[in-house]
Specification:
Elements lengths: L9 H14 L4 E6 L5 H5 L4 E7 L2 H7 L5 E5 L16 E4 L8 H11 L7 E6 L1 H4 L2 H11 L2 E15 L2 E12 L18
Parallel strand pairs: 1-2, 1-4, 2-3, 4-5
Antiparallel strand pairs: 5-7, 6-7
């Protein structure tokens, strides 16, 4: 269903869910910051406790009958309730590439994600569409000890008037490593 943003195709939902399950196969508490693509439904049949934080009540109307998914109405510009902070083993988000509210999305990630090493953040976006803000995203995540450990290229497909738009799934892991480098090594040439 159309929930106010572009929605990826059904094979994309399955690819994302399969990728997350293969990367994070041991179960745990997963938070979705927004879920207009309804990837949570594809992931719910696995071994996860899933909570969706989204401003759109229509998502609740779709997932309300799922026993292993909890919906919380939430606007990303506001802080997460303290009782829920740092209680998720993984956070999944798909912010709009051009969103001026990108900083709010990441502030919520930092509130939700556990402080334990190995916690994961899965972000769907296209760094080329982010432009120079991609470096800011990496710096902000690194400041919170979230290090890029993987990327699945063109995993999500969206139909548009211009043709098919794709986004990558970036995987970041909480690693409490002391580093003298400002950022871990990345293939800079890829982003020129």
């Amino acid at each position: 269903p159309e929930l106010g943003q572009r929605v990826c195709d059904i094979p994309s939902k399955k690819r994302i869910a399969e990728c997350i399950h293969n990367d994070f196969p041991y179960g745990g508490n997963i938070a979705f910051l927004g879920d207009d693509d309804l990837v949570s439904l594809a992931l719910a049949k696995n071994i996860y406790n899933i909570e969706i934080f989204d401003i759109d009540n229509r998502i609740y109307d779709i997932i309300y009958s799922e026993d292993d998914i909890m919906y919380r109405k939430h606007n990303v510009i506001y802080s997460i309730d303290e009782s829920l902070q740092n209680s998720f083993d993984a956070v999944i988000l798909d912010p709009a590439d051009g969103s001026v509210a990108l900083v709010h999305w990441f502030n919520r990630v930092f509130e939700l994600i556990s402080h334990k090493e190995g916690a994961r953040v899965y972000i769907s976006f296209n760094p080329f569409r982010l432009g120079k803000r991609w470096a800011c995203v990496l710096e902000q995540l690194h400041r919170h000890s979230l290090i890029p450990v993987g990327m699945k290229e063109s995993i999500k497909h969206y139909d548009s008037e211009e043709g098919t738009i794709t986004t990558n799934l970036w995987i970041f892991e909480k690693q409490n490593l002391a580093s003298t480098l400002p950022l871990p090594y990345l293939d800079v040439e890829e982003f020129r």
